[in-house]
């Protein structure tokens, strides 16, 4: 691989050794059509951060077996036909999706699904592909359990690449162009060697992996997660009222959240978005617990959750960076440098 490819991998991984292993592992799984880990990759970052280069890279090494989808396509029996021979199910530039994810779970897990080619009989088959999503933002799917979160690894790209004005890699009409094109054989060789060492990482839970590669993930989505980190804690067998704008901020969740947003200059979510997002994000944070909402005589409650006694301002909030494992990519990949 050339200096340009190494620089791109360094950028994509954020110079984090575990992120680099995740990239390598997913490339290996795609090249070998291995879905035994039942994992999906969610690559997200600001516009121009290099996500499309990674999409083009995947298409360049897998060709016609990369199939592009939207979440709506998964509900279309005709569109699902493309999954039959897909190596990668690519969901590019995903918008803020809050719908059902049951079909997506089936695709990631390789469970039996159905499809129908136009004017032909229905077929049943098991998808054998890796799911890759890219987006400018984290999503908030409608998943009251932690089923979908157990399957996703979230890779954050925080910066714009230094050589953003250079065509690194483009893939159009089945033709790849760009300065990284000649590096693809070396990249493939590097990825195929992952079996010797880096695949051990995928034996960990996604909660552990995400804490290693995106330690600040839960603080980058929106102010709701900052509020959660400062003001909520897991409390087994408890239930806490969601409340509304007029209820006691010390006894209900939503007015407490509103005060936090007001104190720190954030625009709050509506009460409907608040309760739905809260469940999704608590299940992301507390991956091994089950957080749900229930209707009671007193109103909607969130299970296994309670308020802490922390001050509702962010001035004393400190990020932990102990998981930022920097490395020298040029030394690490010296055996693959041209």
Task: Please describe the structure with a list of short key phrases separated by commas or semicolons.
five-stranded parallel beta sheet; alpha/beta; Arc Repressor Mutant, subunit A; 338 residues; globular; three-stranded antiparallel beta sheet; 12 strands; Rossmann fold; 11 helices
Multimeric state of these chains?
single chain
* CATH classification class of the largest domain: Alpha Beta
Helicity level? 25-40%
Please indicate the percent range of residues in DSSP E strands (runs of 2 or more).
Answer: 15-25%
Pattern of helices and strands:
HHEHEEHEEEEEEHHHHEHHEEH
CATH topology of the largest domain: Rossmann fold
- Class computed from helices, strands and strand pairing: alpha/beta
Q: Estimate nothing, just give the exact number of structural domains.
A: 2
Alpha-carbon Rg, integer? 22 Å
Structure annotation, total helices: 11
Low-confidence stretches: 310-324
What is the overall pLDDT average? 84
Distance between the termini: 5 Å
**Could you say which overall geometry the principal axes of the C-alpha atoms support?**
globular
How many β-strand runs? 12
Q: What is the CATH H-level superfamily of the largest domain? A: P-loop containing nucleotide triphosphate hydrolases
Largest sheet: 5 strands, parallel
Biggest sheet: strands side by side, in what order? Answer: 2-3-6-1-7
Query: Based on the structure given, which CATH architecture of the largest domain is correct?
Result: 3-Layer(aba) Sandwich
